[in-house]
Amino acid sequence: MDDVASVRRTPRLSLSERIAATQFGAKAHWPGGFEVYRSGTAADGVFIVLHGHVVLRSPMKGGRGFVSGIAMPGETFGAEGLAPHGCYVTDAKAADGVETLHPGREQFRAFLREQPAHAISLIGQIMAERSNLLERLQELASLNVEDRLVSVLIRLSEDTGFMVDDATLKLDPSHHRLLCEMVGATRESIALALSRMVNGGVATRAGTCFVIDTQQLATRLRASRYDEQAPLQVAKESAQAQART
Q1: For residue 40, is it left (φ>0), alpha (ψ between -120 and 50) or beta?
Q2: 132: which of 69, 141, 152, 234 is 20 to 30 A away, CA to CA?
Q3: Cβ neighbour number for residue 167 with a 10 Å cutoff
Q4: CA distances from residue 40 to 7, 54, 81, 85, 91 in whole angstroms, order as listed
Q5: Rg (CA), the chain
Q6: How far is CA 32 from CA 8, 88, 97, 125, 211, in A?
Q7: Which of 104, 129, 146, 143 is nearest to 227 (CA)?
Q8: Would you state the pLDDT for residue 59?
Q9: Exposure of 137 by Cβ count < 10 A (0-12 exposed, 13-18 middle, 19+ buried)?
Q10: Is residue 133 within 8 Å of residue 53, measured between CB atoms?
């Protein structure tokens, strides 16, 4: 998993930081599929995931949607509630067996006053997740469907709920809609990209499921992000040299 982590791994609040925050928030258990909040409603405070994961989805026309992120244990969501007159910009839906901690706006201020070191760690966590969101925007603008799928699979490999062992990720048919909405592509495009991974030895079929070798994903994503940019830089420098002459 080291190769995967070297591409991008979202930082997470440590166990001690999560424990410190429990004095300033309300714990809640959410059953699978439960809507924690809806886009457009008034936001308050921030949520910290203690167990499971929460899917952040923006509804679109025709019942479709776009998943801008998944909040995993030690990560946050709903930080819009820390802003004055905050309003949630996505729907937040719990996966199976999710536990969260919710410090409201006033509780967060008390946390900052009484335990500033832990509260600053929480702020740093929120900013790290914002940086990851900016990377997602860059991927949507510059990468093709297959490379975006690789990035999403690496992200899912950070959640033990999707993993078979330390290096393989198992996708069953129930995950296909999630993949489509995270990648921003049709089901047919995702199926074609997964088939190419099978042909390339990155994935194997197990009945109706796909098993992904995550150790091979990192090299592919690094190449798509950086190696393809090198010729563009050379071409730019060459054009500048010609202009000077």
Answers
A1: left
A2: 234
A3: 15
A4: 34, 18, 12, 12, 9
A5: 20
A6: 28, 20, 6, 25, 24
A7: 143
A8: 86
A9: exposed
A10: no
Tell me which residue of 120, 182, 128 sits closest to 150, measured CA to CA: 182
- Phi, psi (rounded to 5 degrees) for 5: -65, -30
| Closest of 210, 216, 200, 161 to residue 51, by C-alpha | 161
- The Cα–Cα gap between 87 and 116 comes to 26
Average pLDDT over residues 170-180: 90
Q: State the average pLDDT for the chain.
A: 86
Is 217 in contact with 153 (CB distance < 8 Å)?
Answer: yes
Cβ atoms of residues 93 and 33 within 8 Å: yes
Q: Which pLDDT tens digit goes with each residue over 199-244?
A: 988 899 988 899 998 888 877 666 655 554 444 343 344 444 444 5
